[in-house]
Amino acid sequence: MNISKITEGVYYVGVNDRTTDRFEGLWSLPNGVSYNSYIVRGNTKTALIDTVEVGAVHNYFRAIFAEIGESEIDYLVVNHMEPDHSGGIPMILSHFPNLKIVGNKHTIAMIKGFYHINDDSRFMEVKDGDVLDLGGKSLKVVLTPMVHWPETMMTYLEESGVIFSGDAFGCFGALNGGVVDTEMNTDWYWDEMYRYYSNIVGKYGRFVQKALEKTSGLTLKYICPTHGPIWHENIAKVVDIYDRLSKYESEPGVTIIFGSMYGNTGEIAESIARQLAARGVKNIKIHNAAKADLSYMISDAFRYEGLIVGGPTYSMHLFPPVENFMIAMETREIKNKVFATFGSFTWASAAAKTLGEYLNKMKMEPVATLEMKHSASESTYTAVEQLAESVVNALKLK
Ligand SMILES: Cc1cc2nc3c(=O)[nH]c(=O)nc-3n(C[C@H](O)[C@H](O)[C@H](O)COP(=O)(O)O)c2cc1C
Ligand SMILES: [Fe+2]
Ligand SMILES: [Fe+2]
């Protein structure tokens, strides 16, 4: 029984990483992550699609040799150059001296820069729409720039309806035995997909939309991403999640992000939440920005329609963990939110102004703002009620 076979001629040779704490040095990985790589065998040629992170190369080679034995690999197709997929390139090149790297001009420039491989005879440059003939298996190049880097592309195995999609349609979470979605309970991967999309791909929504347009005409039987499960029976659901997230579409609910040193600003966050709940909002997520994991805050911010952010003034600045969150929102060009802000100060206000400046830069108008001096008083609680009322009135998804 060949347990790595996905469909005729396509084999999984990826590896799990349950050791790394933070993906890209930033994003927590409580459930690990997989680096997916694939072998495609035609009648005459064999191609490897992408490699893995350098620390995972040992197990990667074990998976490759279990699949190919003594036979050769003719091509390495590099869909994405981020080091979580390109780390294995130098060792693959030295193990297979006749192998050619297949990539577009940006890919090839990056390989030369990252890995100092300057022998042009090792490269085969491809353009959008080019087809790599493996003998009865044709790999068509679909350029999808900025999903997630400029060189990013997908490759489509025409005869089998298999798309090797790079980071698109990927998610956090290592694979726990099952590789194709038909072999597993996929329930817990959906949250990991939201988190992966919002953390990693979130900035590039309009490029994801372009890529979706480009792939919409293709028959898709299997989506083989670089991270997480291979999608077969959930293709429609996965494409829908990526489509909605890349259009910044939300679900009903409100995320409240706050910072607080001594609890006064925290009290506003709690009161807002209570007032929202009293007005029928059921999905409310509150994160203390100084303690919560930025990765989960970003994920909830993308997911829910309402976003309320507040923090105290700290040495003439917005409290740094809250500012850090706002930078993450600005970076990801977050849109289509019902936004409200609250700030506090004691002698010279800065928090509320800075929050306003971020919203300006993001071309978003808050539906309500609130500012508190010292601690909550009756007028603060009245303002909280008004803020909650304005937010609830503006929510379209109820
Ligand atoms: C280290 C520190 C720096 C602060 N810097 C300022 C400031 O520059 N301007 C100001 O008006 N208040 C400043 N404050 C006061 C807080 O912004 C204000 O007391 C706020 O209400 C505290 O809210 P909290 O209880 O949620 O921490 C500072 C407080 C601390 C502890
Ligand atoms: Fe990437
Ligand atoms: Fe990746």
What does this molecule look like?
The protein has twelve helices and 22 strands. The chain has 398 residues and is of the alpha/beta class. It has two domains: 5-246, 4-Layer Sandwich (Metallo-beta-lactamase, Chain A), CATH 3.60.15.10; 251-394, Flavodoxin domain (Rossmann fold), CATH 3.40.50. Strand 4 and strand 5 form a beta hairpin. Helix 5 crosses helix 9. The longest helix has 17 residues, at 378-394. Bound molecules: flavin mononucleotide and fe (ii) ion (2 copies). Flavin mononucleotide is lined by residues 260-266, 312-316, 344-349.
Can you summarize this structure?
The chain is 34% helix and 24% strand.
Please describe the topology of this protein.
Blueprint: E1 5-7, E2 10-12, E3 15-17, E4 22-23, E5 27-28, E6 33-35, E7 38-41, E8 46-49, H1 57-68, E9 75-77, H2 83-86, H3 89-95, E10 100-103, H4 105-115, E11 123-125, E12 131-133, E13 138-143, E14 153-157, E15 162-166, H5 189-201, H6 205-215, E16 222-225, H7 235-246, E17 251-258, H8 264-278, E18 284-288, H9 294-303, E19 304-314, E20 317-318, H10 320-331, E21 338-345, H11 351-361, E22 368-373, H12 378-394
